[in-house]
Amino acid sequence: MLGYSIAIRRLQCLVRFLVGQNKNRLHSTMTTVPGIEADALNVLRSITPTLDLTRHKGQAGKIAVIGGCREYTGAPYFSAISALKIGADLSHVFCTKDAAPVIKSYSPELIVHPILEESYSVRDEDKRSISAKVLAEVNKWMERFDCLVVGPGLGRDPFLLDCVSDIMKHARHSNVPMVIDGDGLFLVTNCLDLVSGYPLAVLTPNVYEYRRLVEKVLNCEVDSQDGTEQLLSLAKRVGGVTILRKGKSDLISDGESVKSVSIYGSPRRCGGQGDVLSGSVAVFLYWARQRVAELEPRSNPTMLGGIAGSILVRKAALLAFENKRRSTLTGDIIECLGMSLEDICPVNRHR
Ligand SMILES: NC(=O)C1=CN([C@@H]2O[C@H](COP(=O)(O)OP(=O)(O)OC[C@H]3O[C@@H](n4cnc5c(N)ncnc54)[C@H](O)[C@@H]3O)[C@@H](O)[C@H]2O)[C@@H](O)CC1
Ligand SMILES: Nc1ncnc2c1ncn2[C@@H]1O[C@H](COP(=O)(O)OP(=O)(O)OP(=O)(O)O)[C@@H](O)[C@H]1O
Ligand SMILES: [Mg+2]
């Protein structure tokens, strides 16, 4: 009886797998944007490092997420754990004191620094010294990081955002790449100088964040007809930062070119998927920077990182959806990151 039910379950799995394969094919042929569709699978393969026994801890990437406050503890966790699941060696989170024990309790894999402060816990006369202390704490680590992710679950407290502005200025001074998402985009939209002209910045706006950026920078409404031209102008106007506009197709531009990633994807729009993307882009951006000198033709590593992060998260979302359907949640997508990467780029067999 037991053997019979195991056989039935295996058969069901096989059928689901075959249907899934077929759907993957459908997704990859039906929805591509002609002309600007990125060769995303090959981009991902070309920048993903091989695994071998000569490498030591840290070489595959050290990522830091600046985010996590009283309201939001899920977002920084999703971003930081995604970086690890893709292949980074170390993932840090710099968050408020309230958020830290919660984030630590989700995972022992993350290194959590409870250093940020919100206005409610700081007296006016202490603000200057506390912000200097926050900056000093992050700076102790700054040189070690290969990429920062600024914004997942950061909140919008004015004192906290002032401290984060200082952190961003120092990251920029140290040439540390930054992926900016969520409340980080709220900060940057109100203070464009933080990223303007910094080629190592990647902004990852969703539909509302993109609208706010367009209104602020281009002083007009989002062009629903020719999205690519407008994205190109936006990235150019912000001084050549890379912008990954999330949507039915992801569009990525550094002001010089626009690429789209349309294949894969899932119809579930549960919260947190953008956080997964931010952690993923951070890792791929670092990997792209390491490989870029060997690649022909030479490409902008922030574009390559955006394209690779986009396709991987879309594939993981599709895989999770095939299994969980309407109940698909962000945690399910994170569980599919490793398998999706292995499907596209099997360990040590991709070059
Ligand atoms: N589990 C978690 O802790 C999560 C926290 N998140 C964090 O939550 C913070 C806020 O990000 P959100 O994306 O939720 O931002 P918002 O609070 O701006 O948007 C929340 C939702 O409100 C609606 N909305 C926003 N602007 C609108 C407009 N102009 N017109 C109509 N509807 C509008 C949209 O449905 C939007 O998805 C960020 O720090 C983000 O990282 C999210 O990443 C989701 C998951
Ligand atoms: N209509 C869509 N069809 C397919 N995939 C989509 C669609 N919209 C967004 N995505 C994908 O979902 C992921 C997250 O994008 P989304 O716009 O949901 O981010 P977000 O709103 O910032 O999420 P979060 O809840 O984490 O803040 C991206 O990888 C993007 O490619
Ligand atoms: Mg978001």
UniProtKB/TrEMBL annotation:
Catalysed conversion reaction: (6S)-NADHX + ATP = ADP + phosphate + NADH + H(+); (6S)-NADPHX + ATP = ADP + phosphate + NADPH + H(+)
The record's CDD domains line, in alphabetical order, gives: YXKO-related
EC number of the protein: 4.2.1.93
Cofactor(s) annotated in UniProt: Mg(2+)
Q: What is this protein called?
A: ATP-dependent (S)-NAD(P)H-hydrate dehydratase
Which GO biological-process labels does this protein carry?
A: nicotinamide nucleotide metabolic process
- Binding residues for ATP: 246-250, 265-274
Q: Which UniProt keywords apply?
A: ATP-binding, Lyase, NAD, NADP, Nucleotide-binding, Phosphoprotein
A GO molecular function term, named singly, is: ATP binding
Every copy of the YjeF C-terminal domain together lies at 40-344
Pfam families noted in UniProt? Carb_kinase
Q: Which family does it belong to?
A: Belongs to the NnrD/CARKD family.
Q: Which SUPFAM superfamilies match?
A: Ribokinase-like (SSF53613)
PROSITE patterns from the entry?
YJEF_C_2 (PS01050), YJEF_C_3 (PS51383)
* Keyword set includes Cell inner membrane: no
Q: Which HAMAP family match?
A: NADHX_dehydratase (MF_01965)
Superkingdom of the organism of origin: Eukaryota
Q: Which residues bind (6S)-NADPHX?
A: G153, N206, V207, Y208, E209, Y210, R211, R212, D275
Q: In UniProt terms, what function does this protein have?
A: Catalyzes the dehydration of the S-form of NAD(P)HX at the expense of ATP, which is converted to ADP. Together with NAD(P)HX epimerase, which catalyzes the epimerization of the S- and R-forms, the enzyme allows the repair of both epimers of NAD(P)HX, a damaged form of NAD(P)H that is a result of enzymatic or heat-dependent hydration.
